[in-house]
Design goal:
The strands form two sheets. Strands 1, 4, 5, 8, 9 and 10 form a six-stranded mixed sheet that branches. A five-stranded mixed sheet has the order 3-2-11-6-7. The chain folds into two domains: 3-12 and 113-260, Sulfite Oxidase, Chain A, domain 2 (Alpha-Beta Complex), CATH 3.90.420.10; 41-96, no CATH class. 25% of the residues lie in helices and 22% in strands. It has helices spanning 18-30, 32-37, 54-70, 72-87, 136-140, 169-176, 200-203, and strands at residues 3-6, 122-126, 132-134, 144-152, 158-168, 184-189, 195-199, 208-214, 217-218, 228-231, 243-249. The longest helix is centred in the N-terminal third of the chain and has 17 residues, at 54-70.
Length: 280
């Protein structure tokens, strides 16, 4: 199986702790609707869970500061503890914890089914000549592209130099045979709620991956696995987690966050009022 390696040499910006909170404030001011609707009703926690209490948040805050002080290993351990809490946190407060250059974990549903090598399926359909359903093994058997890029969230935090590997989205589109009427793709998640879209030209960019690996291993469930999208030049909300469907359409269909105030063309540094961010 042939592997194509693409490396990024751009300067990396690092956003940590309080810097994250400060950098997201101007964006929130420009996008009040997105800020309001990003957080579920705290009186109705998702999946029947309990709201994250003040003592828990304060305790995790102390652990977060300790993680930054004691290095990467402690931060990684803290992240593994925080992931399931952040995914079910109806207040959004745990996403503000100072965990350094690591991922924050978001879900718009609070609970996401688990898929594995046996149960995972990815459909490619819509305006294509050869609609298909792919298993995880099918995707693993295709030529893989590896690259190193930063992951930039529209709210300000960034994880530098993340290693990604997967199948270029353009390869899947070519395999399905996009019809002449096709102008865009609509992406769906097996969380049952999240969607997003790209133009066909954006989807064919060489650093747009259907990612199977990140951070040196398989994409975990908390990171949106076993398969997620990684759209390198765009903000993280365009990189759909728990990817289940790719539908070719004749126009761009606004996705979950676009309906809540985010820009449809979410390029880093030139959208959502965040010109300060550097594209890698």
């Amino acid at each position: 199986m042939r592997e194509v390696v693409v490396e990024s040499t751009s300067l990396r910006d690092r956003v940590v702790g309080v810097g994250y909170v400060a950098s997201m404030s101007p964006w929130r001011a420009r996008h009040p609707a997105a800020g309001r609707e990003a957080t579920p009703d705290p009186d109705r926690p998702p999946d029947g869970g309990s709201p994250v209490g003040r003592r828990v948040v304060l305790g995790l805050l102390g652990l977060g500061a300790l993680g930054i002080a004691t290095g990467t290993r402690a931060q990684d351990a803290l992240t593994s503890v925080l992931a399931p809490i952040q995914l079910r946190d109806p207040t959004g407060l745990t996403s503000l914890l100072p965990v350094g250059d690591t991922f924050r974990f978001y879900s718009v549903t609070g609970s996401v089914p688990t898929r594995d090598a046996t149960s995972y399926r990815l459909t490619v359909d819509g305006l294509v000549d050869r609609p298909t359903t792919l298993t995880l093994a099918d995707l693993q058997g295709m030529p893989q592209t590896s690259l190193v890029r930063d992951f930039q969230c529209v709210t300000g935090w960034r994880v530098p130099e993340v290693h990604w590997s997967g199948v270029q989205l353009s390869r899947l589109l070519d395999h399905a045979g996009v019809q002449t009427e096709g102008r865009a793709i609509r992406l769906t998640s097996f969380d049952g709620t999240y969607t997003d879209s790209l133009t066909l030209d954006q989807a064919r960019l060489p650093d747009c991956l259907v990612a199977l690996q990140m951070l040196g291993g398989d994409v975990t469930h908390n990171h949106g696995g076993p398969v997620r999208l990684y759209m390198a030049p765009m903000y993280g909300y365009k990189s759909v987690k728990w990817l289940s469907g790719i539908e070719v359409t004749d126009h761009v269909v606004e996705g979950y966050w676009e309906h809540r105030g985010y820009d449809v063309d979410g390029f880093v540094g030139s959208s959502n009022g965040r010109e300060i961010d550097e594209r890698t």
